[in-house]
C-alpha cells in the first residue's frame, strides 16, 4: 500500500503562470537566490546536476557526495542541465522538486515556489517535474547511480549517529531502469519478495538477504551499502549474507521479528500502467469560457497538439501539462489545476508525477510517449 504524505498533495502543483509582470517578479526573486544566482555555482552556464535541500524556508546546496541520498522528512530541488544539440552552446533544463512523505507543509510549499523562481531564472524554458517519494519518475532516478531514501530530515534534527544505538530497519534494494534504488520498507515479512535484495539493519549486524531471482547489480549495490554502513559505524557492525531458502534463514526471521511466505518477483511489480489507456485533454477558452475536453484516447500523436491551447496528456506513468506558445494567460494559469482535478476525477493515484512542458521544450520522455 502507498504511504500517504503528511502534507496536502493538491497544494504542490507547480505555481500558476500569469502576466509578464508576474514573470518578471519571479525572475527578480530567482536572480536574488544565491543558491543558483552566484556565478560560481555555474547554474545556467554549463551542463551538470545540482541538488538543493529546503531548510527553514531557505535553499541550501546538498553535498555532491550525498547526491542520490534523500530523507523522507525533507523536500529537495534537483536541476539537470544538458545540451540537446552538441553543435550549440544552448542548454536545456529539467527541474524536479522532490517531496518526502514526512516533509512539512512549509517545506513542500517552499520547494514548489522556489522551483518556479529557478525556472524563471533560467528563462521559463525548463521542463518542471513534481516528484513524490516512492513514486519517482524514471527520468529522475536516471540521474543517480544509487538512489536511497532514509528516515529523518532537517526538521527532526537528523545528525550522524555517533552513539552505538541504531534504529532497526529493513531496506529494499531494487533495480529500476538503470538505477539501483534503496528504500526503507515496513519491517515485516510481507515486504519481502524473491526478485530483490533486502538489508535488515539491527545495528550491530546487517543481514543481507538475496532473493532467489534478484539481479547481480542489486547484490553489488547492497554489498556497497553494507560496507559503507559498517564503515560509518567504525567497524562495529558485521554483515551476514543469506540466500533465500538457506538454512540460515531462521537467523533472519528471528532478527526480523516476523516470518511468513516470501512473495514471488512477479507479485511485486505493482499496477501494470501499460493497461491504462493514454488520454489527451484540451484546456481552451476559445469559446469565451474555459473548457476541459477530451481530444483523444489510446493513440496520441504530436499532430493532436495545438499551439493556441494547453493540453493535459496522461501517459499512464506520468501526466504532462503541455503549454502551447500561443495559449492565453487564462489557459496557462489554470492548466495545472485541471491536471490535478483530472487525477482526482479519474481516480488516478494522487502521487502521479506531474510535468509541465513548454511547446518547443519537449524532452525525450515526453516524445517517446507519443505515437508515430
TrEMBL record:
* Coiled coil start-end: none
Give the keywords, sorted: Actin capping, Actin-binding, Repeat
UniProt cross-references to Gene3D superfamilies, sorted A to Z: Severin (3.40.20.10)
User: Which InterPro entries did the record assign?
Assistant: ADF-H/Gelsolin-like_dom_sf, Gelsolin-like_dom, Villin/Gelsolin
**SMART domains according to UniProt:** GEL
Superkingdom of source: Eukaryota
Q: Which PANTHER family match?
A: SEVERIN, VILLIN
Task: Please give the family membership noted in the entry.
Answer: Belongs to the villin/gelsolin family.
Q: What is this protein called?
A: Gelsolin-like domain-containing protein
Supply the source organism for this entry: Gigaspora rosea
